[in-house]
């Protein structure tokens, strides 16, 4: 069985190969940035957190055991870093402006205008947005989300339903 180049890069980077780490960085930066921006809803904070994600990735790469896909592990690390920082900075939400002229890179393909959806996601209340991003966009279970956010799984499900309903209403209005 032939190994994927990505797994070779993970092994090499874990051994200190800077070029392999750089390949991992360029392979995953857009997805990591999209996740971070959607979770924290603040471009300046997202820039800082993405940098922190890759610094910690370099430091923790040796702890990746290969029990899951590297990208899944990376997105879990990213989510943990974001949620920890958000808990530290409860005033981050007040810095959010709904009419930001900046657009994020589209992460998914499809008929939906992703930048429009991103702007609407950013308008959701904090916990509702976090649940929606983690479940709908990252595929996390309601149990995992509940554990991360310190809420009941039923609350996660309710928040997700609320987010989906609001987004559908907003999309119909536009």
From TrEMBL:
Ranges for the RNA polymerase sigma-70 region domain? 24-91
| GO molecular function per UniProt | DNA binding; sigma factor activity
Domain RNA polymerase sigma factor 70 region 4 type, first and last residues per copy: 116-167
Q: Which InterPro entries match?
A: RNA_pol_sigma-70-like, RNA_pol_sigma-70_dom, RNA_pol_sigma70_r2, RNA_pol_sigma70_r4_t2, RNA_pol_sigma_r2, RNA_pol_sigma_r3/r4-like, WH-like_DNA-bd_sf
**Pfam families, per this entry?**
Sigma70_r2 (PF04542), Sigma70_r4_2 (PF08281)
Q: Which GO terms describe its biological process?
A: DNA-templated transcription initiation
Which UniProt key words apply to this protein? Sigma factor, Transcription, Transcription regulation
Query: NCBIfam families per the record?
Result: sigma70-ECF
| Family membership noted in the UniProt record | Belongs to the sigma-70 factor family. ECF subfamily.
Its protein name is RNA polymerase sigma factor
Origin species: Idiomarina abyssalis
